[in-house]
Amino acid sequence: MQAIFFSEIFPLMSTANPQTLEWLLNVATEHEYPAGRAVLMEDSWGNAVYFIVDGWVKVRRTANENSRAVAILGKGDFFGEMAILDESPRSTDVIALSRVKLFSISRDRFIQILFKDSQLHHRMLQLMVRRLRQTNLRLEMRLAPPAVKLAHTLITLGENYGQENDKEIFNIPFQDLADATEISLEETTKIMEKLAEKNWIAIDEVNQALKLVNFKQLTNLASRV
Fold first, then answer.
1. Which of 5, 38, 69, 164 counts the most CB atoms within 10 A of its CB?
2. pLDDT, tens digit, for every residue of 63-93?
3. Is 24 exposed, middle or buried (0-12, 13-18, 19+ CB in 10 A)?
4. pLDDT tens column, 3-37
5. Among 218, 224, 208, which Cα is nearest to 170's?
6. Which CATH class is domain 3-138?
7. Domain locations in the chain?
8. What pTM was estimated for this model as a whole?
């Protein structure tokens, strides 16, 4: 992969200098996983930062032998940076939702480049603050109606990972959507069926795609907090 494409895929790298990008690509390790495969186990956090070149993953938390998705991540995102910075243990793992391609950069190499490239360091802080704001918004929405919460999940995925023209995203399993939204599977199924009836969304099972057809209406629904 050329450095210019790396910076285009990953917002984190948009301000990195060309030398940084070339160095990162030289030290990165490429991985590919089929859908359903564990990408990162809970005892492996803190060893590297992972960049999603293509595909979709879910971050899954396990407690008392019960597992649930707490986040859905797609192309252009990254994970593992918090474990590198705070070195605290994690009770989460990462599972491939689709066929996924990743680049990993070891902990020591990534910290080394953060000290060398102040622009990359600053950009990483910006994106971490953005994630914190999104987490705070989810907390504020805990008492919102299920349809509002689910619409918020959908538009967030569309804004973060959707194709620019039609906000098409991966057809995420309803159980994972429910878990990430913190509503029940039954509620998720009913709401998704209603959104499809209104033609606000369209599910393409052949291509494993979920099209957010009426993004404006979904955004209006999500704002009814």
1. 69
2. 777 889 999 999 999 998 888 777 655 678 9
3. buried
4. 666 777 888 887 788 888 888 888 899 999 999 99
5. 208
6. mainly beta
7. 3-138, 143-222
8. 0.89
Q: Which residues pair with 52 in a beta bridge?
A: 102
Q: Strand, coil or helix: what is 22? A: helix
CATH class of the domain defined by 143-222: mainly alpha
Question: What whole-number distance in Å separates Cα of residue 141 and Cα of residue 167?
Answer: 23
Provide the strand spans (E) within the chain.
Answer: 29-33, 38-40, 48-54, 57-63, 66-73, 78-79, 92-96, 100-106, 168-170, 202-204, 209-211
CA distance linking residue 181 with residue 150, whole number of Å: 6
- Residue 199 to residue 157: CA distance in whole angstroms: 18
Q: Locate the DSSP E strands across 74-127.
A: 78-79, 92-96, 100-106
Going by the DSSP 8-state scheme, the letter that residue 173 receives in this structure is: -
- Sheet of 168-170: strand order equals 168-170, 209-211, 202-204
